[in-house]
Design brief:
By secondary structure, this protein is of the alpha+beta class. It has one domain. It has 12 helices and 12 strands. The strands form 3 sheets. Strands 2, 3, 4, 5, 6, 7, 8 and 11 form an 8-stranded mixed sheet that branches. Helix 8 crosses helix 10. The longest helix is centred in the C-terminal third of the chain and has 18 residues. It starts with 6 loop residues before the first strand and ends in a 12-residue tail after the last helix.
Length: 343
């Protein structure tokens, strides 16, 4: 048992639409980074992740790697499932959040936790439950957030008998099926209507000006991530996902800094796109599936969300994840357009 890894994919891979997984890549807006204005050109964007990859994402590769759905189809990616927290305390072990372009400077007041089921009370009970909640057919009949107590009991029953990996995959799969695999614009618009309804029950913050200026897809995911804290980092597959991330949000790359050594890479959002015909999101790839080996904290216990069993140490989780990343990079078996072949 001492040699048991802190995370595992359970030897159970699953195919998910890339449109589904893009929802769980954390978007972080650096408000008024370039100037004091809150606008698209000043409030730059970083994709956040725990430090789970042997390499940070390459500006050059994201800029030059053409996203090819045919090449990406049915390839393998290794997401590490976690959830976002704005606090860090000893009771609930956390890992700092970094831009996927920079694993040296962490992001203030942003952390990732891996105890998806245990330590109920540290935020973990909301990470997967909110995804489960959005999977319900009659979301809009919920008029009081307290009414969700029955659904929470259903959620706990749903987890019984499932190992950590299967439990996470099952909930995400249930969520995906509810929105028809996120194959079309209509799926995202339906999700947004449900998020708006549920979020209105607990109050909402004023939308920043730069977010209101963003394209509709960015606004939908921004609202979704306010309500759902579940996130993924990529042990393997970061570049192909960030290429699509850039495409679907209609963003360019921008560096900020005095020279090549000190410059940091960000995404800058472009002006809202004019819909092509009746298609609200013309850059959306329909029916693109990837194979995901879903890594989850092995010490989470889905059969008992109130268990006192401690989560794995975040440092141990990330060390093991980077070892897996290095092994994947060496074998290059899962590469797309040579994205993971060492230079």
């Amino acid at each position: 048992m001492d040699n048991q890894p802190p995370i595992s994919d359970g030897d159970v891979s699953i195919k998910f639409p890339i449109n589904l997984m893009i929802l769980f890549i954390n978007i972080h807006v650096h408000h008024s980074l370039v100037t004091t204005d809150c606008c698209l050109s000043s409030c730059l964007v970083s994709p956040l992740s725990p430090n789970c990859n042997i390499r940070q994402a390459s500006h050059y590769r994201i800029e030059t790697l053409h996203f090819d759905p045919t090449l990406s189809s049915s390839t393998v990616a290794y997401p590490l499932v976690c959830y976002l927290s704005e606090t860090n305390d000893e009771k609930f072990p956390s890992a700092p959040a970094f831009s996927m372009f920079n694993y040296e400077d962490d992001i203030k007041d942003r952390y990732f936790r891996f105890n998806l089921f245990s330590d109920c009370g540290g935020g973990s009970e909301h990470a997967l439950f909110h995804v489960y909640l959005l999977s319900e057919t009659d979301v809009k009949v919920i008029n009081d957030i307290n009414v969700t107590s029955k659904l929470y009991n259903d959620y706990k029953s749903f987890l019984v008998g499932k190992c950590s990996v299967v439990a996470v995959q099952s909930i995400i799969q249930k969520f995906s099926k509810r929105y028809n695999g996120f194959l079309s614009s209509e799926s995202f618009l339906l999700l947004d209507s449900h998020v708006r309804h549920l979020y209105s029950l607990v109050g909402s913050n004023e939308t920043p000006r730069c977010v209101s200026q963003s394209n509709e897809f960015f606004q939908i995911v921004y609202r979704f991530q306010l309500f759902v804290s579940l996130r993924v980092g990529f042990i393997e597959g970061a570049h192909r996902h960030l290429c699509y991330f850039r495409r679907i949000y209609n963003m360019n790359l921008q560096t900020v800094g005095e020279d090549v050594v000190t410059a940091n890479t960000y995404f800058v959002r472009l002006e809202q796109q004019v819909p092509v015909g009746d298609i609200p999101f013309p850059l959306l790839c329909n029916d693109l599936l990837l194979k995901y080996n879903t890594y989850v904290d092995i010490h989470s216990d889905p059969s008992d969300p109130t268990s006192d069993q401690p989560a794995s140490d975040p440092d141990s989780i990330l060390l093991f994840a980077r070892q897996e990343s290095k092994q994947s990079m060496v074998t290059a078996q899962n590469s797309v357009c040579n994205e993971d072949i060492p230079e």
